[in-house]
Amino acid sequence: MPPAHPFDDDKLREECGIFGVVGVQDASTFVALGLHALQHRGQEAGGIVSHDPDHGFNQARRFGYVRDNFTSQKIMETLPGPIAIGHVRYSTSGSKGQTAIRDVQPFFGEFSMGGAAIAHNGNITNANALRRELIERGSIFQSSSDSECIIHLMARSMGRSIPDRMEEALRKVEGAFSVVAMTRTKLIGVRDPLGVRPLVLGKIGDGWALSSETCALDIIGAEFVREIRPGEMVVINGSGVQSHFPFRPQPSRFCIFEHVYFSRPDSILGGRSVYETRENIGRELAKESPVDADLVCPVPDSGTPAAIGYSLQSGIPYAMGIIRNQYMGRTFIEPTEQIRNMGVRLKLNVNRALIKDKRVILVDDSVVRGTTSRKIKEMILDAGAREVHFRIASPPTAWPCFYGVDTPQREKLLAATMSEDEMCRHLAVDSLKFISLDGLYRAVGEAQGRNAECPQYCDACFSGEYPVEPADMLEQGFEMKPAAE
Amino acid sequence: MPPAHPFDDDKLREECGIFGVVGVQDASTFVALGLHALQHRGQEAGGIVSHDPDHGFNQARRFGYVRDNFTSQKIMETLPGPIAIGHVRYSTSGSKGQTAIRDVQPFFGEFSMGGAAIAHNGNITNANALRRELIERGSIFQSSSDSECIIHLMARSMGRSIPDRMEEALRKVEGAFSVVAMTRTKLIGVRDPLGVRPLVLGKIGDGWALSSETCALDIIGAEFVREIRPGEMVVINGSGVQSHFPFRPQPSRFCIFEHVYFSRPDSILGGRSVYETRENIGRELAKESPVDADLVCPVPDSGTPAAIGYSLQSGIPYAMGIIRNQYMGRTFIEPTEQIRNMGVRLKLNVNRALIKDKRVILVDDSVVRGTTSRKIKEMILDAGAREVHFRIASPPTAWPCFYGVDTPQREKLLAATMSEDEMCRHLAVDSLKFISLDGLYRAVGEAQGRNAECPQYCDACFSGEYPVEPADMLEQGFEMKPAAE
Amino acid sequence: MPPAHPFDDDKLREECGIFGVVGVQDASTFVALGLHALQHRGQEAGGIVSHDPDHGFNQARRFGYVRDNFTSQKIMETLPGPIAIGHVRYSTSGSKGQTAIRDVQPFFGEFSMGGAAIAHNGNITNANALRRELIERGSIFQSSSDSECIIHLMARSMGRSIPDRMEEALRKVEGAFSVVAMTRTKLIGVRDPLGVRPLVLGKIGDGWALSSETCALDIIGAEFVREIRPGEMVVINGSGVQSHFPFRPQPSRFCIFEHVYFSRPDSILGGRSVYETRENIGRELAKESPVDADLVCPVPDSGTPAAIGYSLQSGIPYAMGIIRNQYMGRTFIEPTEQIRNMGVRLKLNVNRALIKDKRVILVDDSVVRGTTSRKIKEMILDAGAREVHFRIASPPTAWPCFYGVDTPQREKLLAATMSEDEMCRHLAVDSLKFISLDGLYRAVGEAQGRNAECPQYCDACFSGEYPVEPADMLEQGFEMKPAAE
Amino acid sequence: MPPAHPFDDDKLREECGIFGVVGVQDASTFVALGLHALQHRGQEAGGIVSHDPDHGFNQARRFGYVRDNFTSQKIMETLPGPIAIGHVRYSTSGSKGQTAIRDVQPFFGEFSMGGAAIAHNGNITNANALRRELIERGSIFQSSSDSECIIHLMARSMGRSIPDRMEEALRKVEGAFSVVAMTRTKLIGVRDPLGVRPLVLGKIGDGWALSSETCALDIIGAEFVREIRPGEMVVINGSGVQSHFPFRPQPSRFCIFEHVYFSRPDSILGGRSVYETRENIGRELAKESPVDADLVCPVPDSGTPAAIGYSLQSGIPYAMGIIRNQYMGRTFIEPTEQIRNMGVRLKLNVNRALIKDKRVILVDDSVVRGTTSRKIKEMILDAGAREVHFRIASPPTAWPCFYGVDTPQREKLLAATMSEDEMCRHLAVDSLKFISLDGLYRAVGEAQGRNAECPQYCDACFSGEYPVEPADMLEQGFEMKPAAE
């Protein structure tokens, strides 16, 4: 049942999308629409909590797509009220199998002053230690999810209001996370002190919305107001938006990979459409690594904007040399051996008549394990291409992410074990070039490139420089890059 | 349950895809893959019949996508053997509701010399009269599908072999159709005398495949051999491919809309990729109807290749001004009122930051009812575009198709009631231009344009000139274009 | 999914129940209730056809229980109108698996004068020959069910009305069958010339009902009018009930096993409740085979009335020594090995404290394979019973039934290979006695016992004397009892 | 989905059955079988937890019957290991709807020394107060079930072992409850100090079982060892059974209604089969309230043993005047209006031919609201009975139960508002007699009848004398019987 893409093990995956609305009728329907627009951030499961004076808190959590679970009259009627929050998630480190529905957010807790629900995107890097201590003191965990720690910390807080308790709880957690939460009447949003994960504020009628990305504001017809600031906590009710800054201020470190791949091209980040940023990345790439060829083709769909940029910069015609099967939203259920072996052909097909005898530049967003790149190169050569040149819209991915992104173990990352030249030989292509880290910074708008002293973004997956110490992972034996390197 | 696209009522829809394989192990798995590649030709339901000496004929028919129904080990094990055929279909004029699974092809019939299964793409234009006569003589119909006539005609034939009976039956039916059929050991393919609907032959190992399009040969790794000829019947078994020509020869009239929209861009028609043909259409359109603007944007996804062609010809940059939600493969089930009203926003979002203050050329494949074009124009203007120019990659669709394509009644077709100028005003855009019929013929490779005496293609939906008389429809009151016109 | 009882392979099973209503609003709801009351006659699947002037014929066919399939508002709304017929069935000789839903009755056929639906209980003994001939002449069968022959014979008839065509068709079929059928306005009922299978007529308000048993008239509040006569065909419409007698008259041979086991105890057969007849059988058995003991216990639930009769006649107290688990309506789905081995304990438990040290008479309705009897005896002895005496409310079942009852092959019938004494030793009980054939005839009301020249009932399963030649079975190699025997 | 009986609102309902096994392979399969045998104690949902050294704790919780949920290889394989406990439950006061699966036991908690699962039958009468206090101190409840209090009390205990913590937790709860619990290696059973709810110990091979009733030991082939004593806590592991007595000793007060209705007739209570006790009740009733009549008929199935006893004592023949439809295990899903109105006829049918012109004694186990009794009386009279005499195998039910039994509010109980004579007139029967409270005590083996000073049983539903103060209910406004009464 849990859907998956055939290339999923060869992409980094954002693990969550969050959305909340207050001050509108049938808030849960807006949340369902918002989550639908954020489905690319998590396809395994989704959950919605709403509150209504007559029925109290209501919750529904389901495996599968928003469109299949949160659209019928029947289910939406069970989620009444003017305030609601929701969550979509990818598979996480939590338990799999029978009881995994317990790990689907939002989580709910009943406190002496009333209930609250909470959903988060990101990762708490000291969750294991917190969990051990809470159990020692008598907390009963209902899930294997790190996020449940926040609810238990709130339950043990002496704070008089739920926002007070949340502030107190959040000061004890480390990591990179954005949070949407709700009480009976208040919608709450938080970004971690570094602002690693995104969160934006929107206005809809007399109400307000919080969302991982602006594309989800568009779908409900909300106006994009501003990004929540790193370290900011907003508490929203009938009288408006109140800002708190519970954390010690730090320079921000937004995830640069949101620009490269995670966010939708129609979302706005830093005042510019993600699509344009990606087109810029393609232009930078064409400047850094030109090559003589007949066609620029994207690896669909994520390589498309950068391929267009590459074409515009280089003057080499853009063409769809690879066609994606529209009907692959979910992978084949329980596929037979034969179907599994079809691999990439189930999803992509080469435009043989177009490619034959051509020198082709293939633009992809990233190389993770390299398994897909290899298969695509073979398809292109089988179709009669004369040359294949790979251009990659991100630097080599050499380090795992511990901030809410699902990455393979370090030794599975192609760039962790090979140089660019070795990768080129490994993939057996005519050339392989990645955009430089500085080039990427330029493309996202940092004219001077990366500030090595104090990088403007979190780029740990490329640089190995982790802005928050991954305490739980170190405990499990992960080795950081030596400071000297 | 039956999936549908949100714009379905504003597109012409191919009603069927057919596929067959003989001479390979587990033929049904290849058929499942082939049908998956043909899913764009019919998403409502699918069926597969296979034959195996030990288990005889086996059949499975299901509503929904191939990937959800014909992929599990469990179901594929019920379809063993070295020969199989399959079918995907859109909703047709057959009965809806409880018993509609009976209308899902392939149909099976037991004759005195053994069984046969048959699946077809297209429409039998004298089905009503045939059905009446067959019932009069004692045939019991199990479905409301026109295709079942063929089985009953075969049952009543005195022919000694199944191919003989099929020849005899086909001579009695009128219309536009491609057929794949199977006996215990033979795979059979037929195209109607005009060759309106497509059918191609492929070679896979020691076996053979028949498919509506070449893209489905690619997915199973089969080599494209040739198109089945108009009026040709091929009978394939262990010893190879035998050709028969049961019909009186006529000049061919292939469906020109297959080039415009129905076929997948990676399929090959007339020796050239459909993608290139569509790029050509875009170039023709740029020549015929240039306009000064900042961006050329496709209406995703079907307008993409023509938009690229328009950009290449005009030099105006190509950009993805409209982003399609990847997770709309199926529409929302039982959507709530609020979700229904979201309409087009569930599927498409405008890249606001990109579009703002720009003069935009929107390239779409066709205008049917015009309802979607209107909504898209509004989205673009809401996002702040300065001008909107529509360019359409086909001539005005003014006549319904009776040859296996689902079209609205004539009075619902925008072009049936309005001139090009009226449509422009109706849509309230800065300009609206369709490719000319001659331009379309040139783009598909007819350098001299359309031969008015004897058109090279079936273009009835544009011209109102029907190459086969739609007998059943005339009986129901449809009025043909006066010959004088 | 198909439900089954754990002892099913050790009981004869009636294969069908039929029910029809005309002249009431929402006829299909009455049919659903009637079928629910007839569920004991067939638990695998059920179907209903109704007709309504606005919607024509409608049909629903489902695997599983009536209560689970034909009770929701949603499904019943698809079956509107003042006339409907229905059918419940056990698994038959038809195909199993994917397509078996095609074998679920009623069957529907469209004739030149309109449609008709038909359902039958029983068996057509010359179905194979008829099917071969019909296929030869061009009929296409949609199911593997014998009953479909009737529809095809009707389609080929030259009769002017549907009842005429049905008469003509029925004259060509041999066997034992009751039929309910419907046209747009007429309800039709037929019993075969020997009247082997039951069919009764009821009155409900201004309308009429036909049913396999009277208990299904009770549930809808209909009044029991009379049994349909052997060889009678009734045609019912607004103006009342017309009788036809299409067959050559013959002495009747009603199935005596309906009295013993098939019919529900609250049904009325021959003017007396089946419960009383079974109590009578118990009394006869007590007269024929008395034994000194402490308790008379039924094998639940079918042995209960005969056990009560045995107790009343013998004066030995009646007690429930074996308790049936109420929650075994369906068997365990895909049971694990361990659960399968639990066998009879899943369904029955001995009342240990009651049975201990007692001499127990166990009364059961029949012994088919003897497997269950053995297990029950072991349970009773394990619980500490001092003696176990079996008393069986039917004669030894030594011959298979070919008239609509599912029986094991002859060699699997315990009584086909062993004498009564051998069976007693085989089961290792202190005594085993069957009622005599004459005793059974007396219990059902034939004071003089069985008329050997011209038996009053069909008792082929006991006597091997088949009133209709089982042509299809002889063709498959079945050997009749030599006439001399 | 949640199954229910059509008379459910007219019966008291036991709310739970519990079962646990340790020391056998695949313990969960035995638990599934045990729960199947206890299904009459709760049909809404069931859950099983098992532990296995390799996989830790595993859990499955489902709505519906054991036979449908816990029998497939696939599900049972997810519950491996040599120790398991399970629970079946009726709907309780917990939340209904979307999230109710959270309320299905067993509950699981992770403590610093390892995990534990717990299931209970009965009711904690001070749960509301406990819950409030626990939330105040920071516990997060995952369900609305009272039983979860025990887990949280354990989590907060300072006890060094899980059994120590459970002892400490149980001393804080009030009410009537039996508990089965498990750690990784130990099976634990507890009965409340009064022993209101049942719990028995069984031996199976080298392992042990705990069960609500002995009938569930029979199904797995376990030997019945003894009842757990009131106030006893047993801790079972490889080395055997250890007894603890954590509570202050009190005279026992076992639920007398277990004898009347809740327990299965083949279970053993107090050394005698429940069936025999019920037969005794019938004999007492015949002595106390004789009447001249032709037949003694049970209201099936619960009135059967008492009817047999009445018949044996009175000499009036026993007969099945009312037949129960075997296929009513679950009620009709979403029944249509018409089906709902059929009411009792869906479940019961009168044996019309048997009843006509007879004077009938109907024996039922209890009268709760009286609605069913009325309908049955009408059916019997409609069938032509001359007289109807009701004999009830329990005293008038005039008070609700707060100890784990679902009873209507006091004002809905017929006996709370009417005298015996008034009820007789209300039901319009020829006579209506209940067994006396002393008669019932005699039938269950108390030769001297009830000891009014210190009753031997809990009979609060008849007497209004509650052995444990129902604190939560008093808080909600329930009024106890005045002491003076």
TrEMBL record, chains A, B, C, D:
Q: Which InterPro entries match?
A: GATase_2_dom (IPR017932), Ntn_hydrolases_N (IPR029055), PRTase-like (IPR029057), PRTase_dom (IPR000836), PurF (IPR005854), PurF_N (IPR035584)
Q: What is its EC number?
A: 2.4.2.14
Instruction: Please list the residues that make up the active site.
Output: C16 (nucleophile)
Keywords attached to this Swiss-Prot or TrEMBL record, sorted alphabetically, are: 4Fe-4S, Glutamine amidotransferase, Glycosyltransferase, Iron, Iron-sulfur, Magnesium, Metal-binding, Purine biosynthesis, Transferase
Q: At which positions is Mg(2+) bound?
A: S302, D364, D365
Chain residues that bind [4Fe-4S] cluster: C255, C401, C458, C461
Species: Sedimentitalea arenosa
Q: What class of enzyme is it?
A: transferase
Family membership: In the C-terminal section; belongs to the purine/pyrimidine phosphoribosyltransferase family.
Q: Which CDD domains match?
A: GPATase_N, PRTases_typeI
From the Swiss-Prot or TrEMBL record, give the protein name: Amidophosphoribosyltransferase
Q: Which gene encodes it?
A: purF
Glutamine amidotransferase type-2 domain residues:
16-239
Q: Which residues form a coiled coil?
A: none
Function summary:
Catalyzes the formation of phosphoribosylamine from phosphoribosylpyrophosphate (PRPP) and glutamine.
PROSITE patterns documented for this protein:
GATASE_TYPE_2
Keyword Metal-binding part of the UniProt annotation = yes
HAMAP family noted in UniProt: PurF
